[in-house]
């Protein structure tokens, strides 16, 4: 039986095509679908761009995903009703496997604070930080006060409702505030939740903006993100116990929220051109209807979404967007085989959604799909969103499991921050890979960090076991005959030209182990080695790629590592004649600092293995 809600939702999907005129606005970081007027939509989109710019400048993390957030703004309660999250919310945040949404009842300016509040939750989620409930809600309330003013924003005007609640109600003790979770009456019951939200807002406002606390707020935030108990994190960052902080809160409230004047903080912002001049076009039928179906899927309205998708699939039988929606629905129902099937269909049909593709790769890995089939999915994800740390991490895992350690380290090097829950695994795998490639000292440091950050006894034990094994191996190889490296074989008259040669006695420790260069932290250039030019006692290595030719300096045989086609460092003799044309695929890891402007840098590793 089709319920009334289902009929209403389907009617809204159909009306999106006909009666209402929907437009799409696109800026660098947002995409808005709305049935409101263009002028109002532009103003709203600018507000979100200004909010994003502020968050990036004010946040511990200075980077964000390149996947645009999709805003869906209805023209009033009637169109919004089938998708409403709860009866009182005029806006909400929804994260699906395909993308992130901010859904708004309308574009009335009075509702912007609620939308910015929800956008704050999205930003916090994207940082990967797991914050306590009071701090998460406190940040969202504080930043909901954001007021755009062209090239700057104002933050911190008192929230009238919160001020009334704090003036009338008995305050919670700070230990009680910190203990409140999502199942607490103070988070769910109307009569009690007001004081929870109000105190959370006041404490967060004081920590972020008060001159006595602001300078150390990021120190406190990082400690909280790493799982430190709130009282300990406060004491370590600010040097005060809860009694002193509670007293400061009351004084801050009296002076800044009840006084004749209030403290508002001004933050400069800088916007991309597209934020000020977004592209405006009629909303494409398929994308608009898929967007509205995504909202139904995200809210677990499976019956409504299924009916709408079946109708849409009949009209667009070869659509990657339709397959993405089916995959999202399967994931929400925990039907992983179905999700994998639709993911593979979407990829085959050309899906260009990096967030969706990364989640597909994770599902495929868990479902036992071949690493050779998963890797292209992650390659496309990274192509679309180069800053996607999750995708780099997942590709590193795939390559690591294939024992392609050099390629895995290249992916690890692109990750500049890691979620606390994944930190031990990150350092464990990276340390193991470094050891296998000979960078023993770096590998040891990573494994020690993995043991330090272990969340479970099993994680700590695994890091300790690997440390023991590699230390034993290093001790055995300590007495090995050292490598030899010659620039020119002067005793062989048949060699008419200088050569760059690396020779190893069978059984010797590799040059990688001897040199211990952290080469995988360096930038990398892929291309064809065309020739080696002899310049005195040094060499210029010419590498050609689609972007052009680059020349790298090799200062001496002992200053460069060579990884051969078999994947091992120094396992065989490799000889290169100066001036010879090679046309061999190579990855060059290099130090970009060079005194010669004609050189791209100093080569530290020439990697000829097929894994690169």
Description:
- This protein has 612 residues and is of the alpha+beta class.
- The protein folds into 3 domains: 4-274, Orthogonal Bundle (Neutral Protease, domain 2); 300-476, Serine Threonine Protein Phosphatase 5, Tetratricopeptide repeat, CATH 1.25.40.10; 484-607, OB fold (Dihydrolipoamide Acetyltransferase, E2P) (Beta Barrel), CATH 2.40.50.
- 49% of the residues lie in helices and 16% in strands.
- The chain is built from 25 helices and 18 strands.
- A 6-stranded mixed sheet has the order 4-5-3-2-1-9, sandwiched between helices. It has a 5-stranded mixed beta barrel with strand order 12-13-14-18-17.
- A hairpin with a 2-residue loop joins β12 and β13.
- α22 (423-436) runs antiparallel to α23 (440-452) and α22 (423-436) packs parallel to α24 (457-477).
- Mean pLDDT is 82; it is low at 1-12, 479-521 and 567-573.
């Amino acid at each position: 039986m089709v319920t009334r809600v289902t009929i209403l939702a389907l009617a809204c999907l159909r009306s999106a095509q006909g009666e209402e005129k929907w437009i799409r606005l696109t800026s660098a970081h947002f995409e808005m679908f709305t049935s409101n007027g263009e002028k109002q939509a532009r103003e709203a989109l600018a507000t979100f761009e200004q909010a994003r710019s502020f968050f990036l400048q004010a946040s511990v993390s200075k980077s964000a995903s390149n996947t645009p957030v999709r805003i869906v703004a209805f023209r009033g309660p009637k169109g919004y009703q089938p998708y409403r999250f709860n009866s009182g919310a005029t806006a909400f945040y929804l994260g699906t496997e395909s993308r992130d949404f901010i859904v708004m009842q309308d574009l009335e300016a009075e509702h912007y604070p609620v939308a910015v509040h929800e956008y704050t939750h999205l930003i916090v989620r994207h940082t990967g930080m797991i914050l306590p409930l009071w701090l998460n809600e406190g940040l969202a309330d504080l930043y909901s006060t954001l007021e755009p003013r062209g090239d700057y924003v104002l933050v911190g005007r008192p929230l009238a409702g919160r001020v009334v609640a704090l003036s009338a109600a008995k305050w919670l003790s700070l230990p009680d505030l910190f203990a409140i979770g999502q199942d607490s009456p103070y988070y769910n019951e109307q009569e009690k939740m007001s004081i929870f939200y109000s105190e959370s807002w006041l404490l967060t406002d004081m920590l972020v903006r008060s001159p006595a606390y602001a300078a150390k707020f990021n120190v406190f935030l990082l400690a909280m993100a790493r799982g430190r108990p709130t009282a300990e994190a406060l004491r370590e960052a600010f040097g005060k116990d809860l009694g002193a902080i509670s007293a400061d809160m009351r004084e801050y409230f009296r002076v800044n929220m009840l006084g004749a004047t209030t403290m508002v903080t001004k933050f400069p912002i800088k916007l991309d051109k597209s934020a000020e001049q977004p592209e405006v076009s009629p909303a494409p039928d398929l994308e608009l209807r898929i967007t509205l179906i995504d909202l139904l899927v995200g809210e677990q309205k499976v019956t409504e979404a299924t009916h709408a998708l079946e109708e849409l699939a009949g009209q667009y039988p070869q659509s990657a967007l339709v397959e993405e929606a089916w995959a999202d629905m399967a994931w929400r129902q925990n039907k992983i085989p179905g999700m994998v099937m639709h993911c593979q269909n979407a990829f085959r049909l050309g899906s260009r959604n990096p967030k969706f593709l990364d989640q597909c790769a994770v599902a495929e890995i868990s479902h036992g799909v071949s690493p050779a089939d998963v890797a292209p999915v992650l390659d496309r994800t990274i192509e679309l969103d180069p800053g996607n740390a999750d995708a780099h991490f997942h590709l590193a895992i795939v390559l690591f499991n294939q024992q392609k350690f050099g390629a895995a380290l290249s992916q690890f090097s692109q990750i500049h921050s890691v979620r606390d829950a994944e930190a031990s695994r990150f350092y464990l795998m990276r340390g193991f890979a470094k050891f296998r490639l000979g960078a023993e000292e770096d590998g040891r440091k990573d494994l020690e960090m993995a043991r330090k950050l272990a969340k479970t006894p099993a994680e700590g034990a695994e890091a300790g076991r690997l440390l023991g094994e590699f230390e034993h191996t290093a001790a055995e190889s300590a007495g090995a005959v050292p490598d030899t490296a010659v620039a020119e074989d002067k005793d062989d008259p048949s060699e008419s030209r200088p050569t760059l040669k690396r020779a190893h006695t069978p059984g010797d420790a590799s040059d990688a182990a001897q040199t211990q260069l952290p080469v995988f932290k360096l930038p990398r250039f892929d291309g064809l080695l065309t020739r080696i030019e002899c310049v005195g006692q040094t060499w210029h290595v010419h590498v050609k790629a689609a972007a052009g030719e680059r020349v790298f300096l090799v200062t001496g045989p002992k200053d460069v590592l060579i990884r051969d086609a078999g994947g091992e460092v120094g396992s065989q003799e490799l000889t290169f004649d100066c001036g010879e044309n090679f046309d061999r695929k190579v990855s060059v890891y290099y130090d970009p600092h060079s005194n010669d402007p004609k050189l791209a840098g100093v080569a530290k590793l020439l990697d000829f293995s097929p894994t690169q």
